[in-house]
Amino acid sequence: MRTLLVTGAAGFIGSNFVRMLLNRKEQVKLVAFDKLTYAGNLANLQDLLAKHPDQLVFVKGDICDPAAVTKAFDDHKVTEVVHFAAESHVDRSILGSGPFVQANVVGTQVMLDVSKAKNVQKFLYVSTDEVYGTLPEDKPEIKFTEETPLQPNSPYSASKAGGDCLVRSYFHTFHMPVLTTRCSNNYGPYHFPEKLIPLFVTNLMEGKKVPLYGDGLNIRDWLYVEDHCDAIYTVLNKGRFGEAYNVGGNNEITNRVITETLIREMGKNWDEVVTYVKDRPGHDRRYAIDATKIQTELGWWPKYKFETAIKTTIQWYIDNQSWWRAIKSGEYLKYYETQYAGR
């Protein structure tokens, strides 16, 4: 049976990927490898670990630690790697880029080196459309393709682009069986409430205001997280080694329209809950994905419509208040010590 080492598996997209594979009853063993930094929450996997003890194992470890990564490979006979683990919040990267370079560049280098030494069968690197930079607002016909030059504009996207380049180099230099995906903005369950949609939803539930950057007209292509996870698994199974695949949701929406949608769905009034804040330094104006390559080569298309998936997402936060309230209070950071210490 295939054994996938999933780095960052306790994070937003990583945990959704693990959940999707187990819910589909895919014939794979999963090693959930996570350092449990502030964005890694073992509660994201709690029910899965209890329900699938023979198929899913959790390993607390740092992708920057070659010994820890090597031990995970050896202990669990890893055959493939899906590398999600990353520092990912642009605002935090502006405050300090060091952790981003360490995790996203050095961590990726360590993962590649250990994977190469262990003759891994496949190595998939999960990247972002932010490595491409920004697009003009007045030319909607222009979108990011896999041939668009990498022109990152934030320390976060620069560090992810560094990882992209390392992955590419290991294919051309060492003929490693690597794959890269570059996705647009994700939304859905288990999204850490510092990002726009979960922050705004939870703030509205708490009776707080929502902070809208600048004029709110920055455009993003929104992708439901399960569609993204399905695309990753499609690329892992069918993708050509050495290639990158763009993954988008065909949903170009301004931050203002996202905010209007959330306020409307939650029965609030714009004038009472929105506060404009100074725009982020270097804030990219528009992202848009051309996903023709993954569609034509691999037959992947997004299944979820934004209009319905955003309602599903909002309802998830309504139904799982203990999850996000523990994060906002900081109580979730005690979870590992109280529930899993010594196991």
Automatic annotation (TrEMBL):
EC code(s) of this entry: 4.2.1.46
Cofactor(s) of this protein: NAD(+)
Keyword Iron attributed: no
Recorded superkingdom: Bacteria
GO BP terms in the entry: nucleotide-sugar metabolic process
Entries under NCBIfam families matching the protein: dTDP_gluc_dehyt
Protein name, UniProt field: dTDP-glucose 4,6-dehydratase
Organism annotation: Humisphaera borealis
Classification of source organism: Bacteria, Pseudomonadati, Planctomycetota, Phycisphaerae, Tepidisphaerales
